[in-house]
Design a protein that fits this description.
This protein is of the alpha/beta class. It has one domain: Rossmann fold (3-Layer(aba) Sandwich). The protein has a seven-stranded mixed sheet. Helix 2 runs parallel beside helix 3 and helix 3 packs antiparallel against helix 4. The protein is globular, with a radius of gyration of 18 Å. The chain starts with a helix and ends with a strand. About 45% of the residues are buried.
Amino acid sequence: MDHTRMKIFMATLLLVSSLCLPASAWSYSITNIMNYDDPGTTDLTNGNAVCGIVSQRLQGAGWTEFFSHSDASAVRADFGTDSGGYQGLDGAHFHWHYGHGVMPGTMSSICLSNYPYGYVNRDHVYKKWDNANKWTVIYSCLVLKDRQWGNALKTAHGILGFETTVTGTTSLPTSFFSYAIDNDYCMSSAWYYSTLNSFGSSVTAVAIADTQLQMTSDQLPGQGHLEPDEDPDDNNGYYSSWAC
């Protein structure tokens, strides 16, 4: 084999290898907040069951857990708010959050266990998701009614969640991973069909992606195709919502 053909062969081999990483190369993280200090904030149920399914399905597919933090152990830094050192969810390829969300004005927040003192809003994560993270699920009421959460995506690809109130059910992760892992649906389609299966028309679900192709083509890492990171970042994003 001549040198030119060898270079082409090696470049092709490296490209194929980078697209076909084993599942063990992928990691996930979880934040699960069910119990709140404020007497005026209702404690949640089903979080352990929901997040248990997330762990079970991803570990069953060969993924590695980066962290799983619950209640008071889930802190602001877990949401990738820091640019150096420990970067929370930005150190894993996929993150799932379960807990309360609020939108008292024009800016929504994820409620930490000591809400209203502890919370995470769009400003805390602006252009911060730029390390390993590709997709994040925010299983919370109202958070993605604030479309500016899409500005967290520097090199990360997308966020899935809700712009209305929503109830906690194990049907959502069960259905989502059935589509994403068992049937290799792209991320936005897996979210679309799993939310339709799990909720009624009073619930509005949302998908946000950094590029149009990430919205329409990205599969769960390890399951098939993953679009390149946006480079350079053009400060634009793609937003889709639907009544379930």
